[in-house]
Amino acid sequence: MKKIAFITGATSGIGYSVSKILAKDYALILCGRRELRLKNIKDELSKITEVYTLCYDIRDNESLNKSFESLPTEWKKVYILINNAGNAHGMDLIHEGRISDWDAMIDINVKGLLYVSKLIIPIMIKFNRGIIINLGSIAGKEVYPKGNVYCASKYAVDAITKGMQVDLNNYNIKVCSVNPGLVETEFALVRFKGDKEKANLVYDKIKPLTPDDVAEVIYFIINRPDNVNISDITIFPKNQASSTVINRE
Ligand code: 8X3
């Protein structure tokens, strides 16, 4: 059996692109909340590799553990963990933000990542090998106006990545954080709660990264020689220099 890659948030955006590119070389465990999408992706990628899907809410640690338990034993030997699931909810001044948005971002982007990692890391330790890629963001490197809690959640991902690197240094596990700037996905639509006009402005007059652009970088990271770990990488579209410096031609 091929080595196994476990991908969270696999039903769209960067997660879907990473699933496609890793299907070339790995058996896949694809995780998501949306059952129909998971089924469609499984149908598509099963033509290339072996695929299992786990449908659960990333905030629900118990349901994660239960669905992982249901996997056949040989499928539990995860080699690559792509901690991709995460989103922004709302974009408001700090005193005007909604508690429900804050809860969603902290629960999904931070706690969800921790729950999956706590499940998979002991397996990697047992087999003395593994690669963990955490999807951070430029929002985890600089705070921009109205980014507040989303930025905090991505700063947390950055700190957790560094924490993993330090704590797992003795266990032959590579840990990397991938930090994209503007990537055209459902990200903006989710952040603005379905408001297409606002979402379109995010990608207006700039050619953003595509999810495939990010997936190709992740593929490159995974395929470095055994002695090489790319610990941290930031990826911008050509016309972006920082969270706020964007050349909209
Ligand atoms: C997504 C990038 O700049 O919209 O994480 O926060 S940004």
In brief, what are we looking at here?
The chain has 249 residues and is an alpha/beta fold.
Would you mind describing this structure in some detail?
The protein has 249 residues and is of the alpha/beta class. The protein has a single domain (4-235), classed as NAD(P)-binding Rossmann-like Domain (Rossmann fold). 41% of the residues lie in helices and 16% in strands. The protein is built from 8 helices and 7 strands, in the order E-H-E-H-E-H-E-H-E-H-E-H-H-H-E. The chain has helices at residues 13-22, 35-45, 61-69, 99-127, 148-167, 187-191, 196-202, 211-222, and strands at 4-7, 27-32, 51-55, 78-83, 130-135, 173-180, 232-235. The protein has a 7-stranded parallel β-sheet, sandwiched between helices. Helix 1 packs across helix 8 (211-222) and helix 4 packs parallel to helix 5 (148-167). The longest helix is centred in the middle third of the chain and has 29 residues, at 99-127. The relative contact order is 0.14. The model has no long low-confidence stretch (mean pLDDT 97). The structure holds 2-hydroxyethylsulfonic acid (8X3). 2-hydroxyethylsulfonic acid binds at residues 137-139, 181, 187, 243.
